[in-house]
Write a structure and sequence with these properties.
With 146 residues, the chain is mainly α. Helices cover 73% and strands 0% of the residues. It is built from five helices and no strands. α4 runs antiparallel to α5. The radius of gyration is 17 Å and the shape is elongated. The two termini are 31 Å apart.
Length: 146
């Protein structure tokens, strides 16, 4: 046996969702790495100190984007893994995960660029779409468990 896909062939149907989980994991790590040059190189933010609130500064937006990713990813990962273990429809898991990824990419792009209103604009809409996609996966997992 080379991998789990060979031992449990049903997992192949979830490969797109698992690929999205892996891609998001990598993106969060890259965002973490980028906080140094984007937030701390200009000394606008100080490592280990409270974040200096100013949406007009890329340094603030870079740190907050990473923090938001680090806060959101565990719930997404858990929902996807439990949904797969519980046998939720691969179509539902893969589509909802794809929507989550697309909305996260939009969220990150809008936040890094600093476009739109601070609250209630395109960034907020993208964030809500992420939440809803994650909720769909988590609810489907709960239903499938019982």
């Amino acid at each position: 046996m080379e991998n789990l896909f060979e031992a449990a062939p049903f997992l192949n149907a979830y490969r797109p969702g698992l690929t999205i989980v892996a891609a998001l994991s990598l993106i969060v790590l890259v965002q973490n790495f980028l906080t140094a040059p984007l937030a701390f190189a200009k000394e606008e933010q100080i490592p280990g100190m409270p974040l200096q609130y100013d949406h007009t500064k890329l340094s603030f937006r870079a740190v907050r984007t990473y923090q938001n990713s680090a806060e959101s990813f565990p719930a997404f990962l858990a929902a996807v893994l439990i949904a797969i273990i519980a046998g939720v429809s691969p179509l539902l898991v893969n589509v909802a995960a794809g929507i989550y990824l697309a909305a996260r990419l939009l969220f990150w792009g809008v936040y890094y660029a600093g476009v739109g209103r601070v609250a209630g604009g395109p960034r907020t809409i993208a964030f809500v779409v992420c939440l809803l996609a994650n909720i769909v996966i988590a609810v489907a997992a709960l239903i499938a468990l019982y």
